[in-house]
Design goal:
Blueprint lengths: L6 E4 L3 H10 L5 E4 L9 E2 L2 E5 L4 E4 L9 E4 L3 H15 L3 E4 L12 H8 L4 E6 L4 H5 L4 E6 L3 H10 L5 E6 L2 H23 L4 H21 L4 H4 L2 H12 L4 H11 L10 H16 L4 H10 L5 H9 L7
Parallel strand pairs: 1-2, 1-6, 2-5, 6-7, 7-8, 9-10
Antiparallel strand pairs: 3-4, 8-9
Helix pairs in contact: 2-3, 6-7, 6-9, 6-10, 6-11, 6-12, 7-9, 11-12, 12-13
Catalytic activity: sn-glycerol 3-phosphate + NAD(+) = dihydroxyacetone phosphate + NADH + H(+); sn-glycerol 3-phosphate + NADP(+) = dihydroxyacetone phosphate + NADPH + H(+)
Enzyme class: oxidoreductase
Function: Catalyzes the reduction of the glycolytic intermediate dihydroxyacetone phosphate (DHAP) to sn-glycerol 3-phosphate (G3P), the key precursor for phospholipid synthesis.
Length: 317
């Protein structure tokens, strides 16, 4: 595996397309999507950006099975996709680009890959990033998490460009949960702003939400310092402060009592339910996570959720 090795990307949504644009600077990229046409240069989810010549588009998965395969698929779709295509994918370096916890199994993306493809090298690419920034060539830093240090170094080299800086870690659990749980807190932050609670409330949610993220991740075996990095705090700050985040925008609509486009994937909704279940299993108190889960499932309103949080006993920080 070299820094210029061919890369296959499965999933031609905004993020998959953006990665194809960025990684084409390193070498050939094959981008797969169910509705892609050979030679297609424009993507519906990535407006105003044309794919460079080094990107080959295809609707045949077999054409995109290079040594490194990026799985640019929603977290809740990953398990089913891998089960369907395990025979083709097993034995390769499979890098998940999803941020979430599988609702059915409670597993993160790397564990989902390992379960479906036991001979693959599973990894996850995560961190503070918006597809439109990556596609425009704006500086972005990401985290590559892989339990195998040697493979992590090789993948780091293969997926880095002059403007896409990839850091590595072997703390897969920390990187996965940081990327997943920040979406839940972003929904809470958006709901606070949408309901008119103000920036001070949002700051409190970010801070206390980060404590919840760390608490759950450490209980699952993560290193606390991983959560202070790009895949945790970095991604949390980005998604809680920008309307470029789908989870934050969903929270805005939730807090304001407005409809939200059901065609837009909001990973934090399923993750909130999965994280709340994990917290109960671990005996952990995650009040913001629980409140978001209740909001998303219609078991609470923004007013009752806030009242419950404010009524909690006073304690030392």
């Amino acid at each position: 595996m070299t820094s210029g090795a061919p890369i296959g990307i499965l999933g031609a949504g905004a993020f998959g397309g953006a990665l194809a644009v960025a990684l084409a600077a390193r070498g050939p990229v094959t981008l797969w999507g169910r509705d892609l046409r050979p030679g297609q240069r424009a993507l519906p989810r990535l407006r105003d950006v044309d794919l460079p010549p080094a990107v080959t588009t295809t609707d045949r998965i077999e054409d995109a099975l290079d040594a490194i395969v990026l799985l640019a698929l929603p977290a809740q779709a990953l398990s089913g996709f891998l089960s369907q295509h395990a025979a083709l994918l097993d034995g390769r370096a499979l890098v998940a680009c999803a941020k979430g916890i599988d609702l059915n199994s409670g597993l993160g993306p790397v564990e989902v890959i390992a379960a479906a493809c036991p001979n693959a090298t599973p990894a996850v690419l995560t961190g503070p990033s918006f597809a439109h920034d990556i596609a425009r060539g704006l500086p972005t830093a990401l985290t590559l998490a892989c339990a195998d240090e040697a493979q992590a170094i090789a993948l780091q080299a293969a997926l880095s460009t002059p403007v896409l800086r990839v850091y590595r870690t072997t703390d897969v659990i920390g990187a996965e949960l940081g990327g997943a749980l920040k979406n839940v807190i972003a929904i809470a932050a958006g709901a606070a702003i949408g309901a008119g609670f103000g920036d001070s409330a949002r700051a409190a949610i970010i801070t206390r939400g980060f404590a919840e993220m760390t608490r759950l991740a450490v209980s699952r075996g993560a290193r606390a310092d991983t959560l202070t990095g790009l895949s945790g705090l970095g991604d949390l700050v980005l998604t809680c402060t920008s309307e470029g985040s789908r989870n934050f925008r969903f929270g805005l609509a939730l807090g304001a009592g407005e409809p939200f486009d059901p065609a837009i994937t909001v990973e934090g909704v399923a993750t909130a339910s999965a994280a709340a279940a994990l917290a109960r299993a671990e005996g952990l108190d995650l009040p913001i996570t629980a409140a978001v889960s209740d909001l998303c499932q219609g078991r609470a309103t923004i007013q009752t959720a806030l009242a419950a949080l404010l009524a909690r006993p006073l304690k030392e920080e």
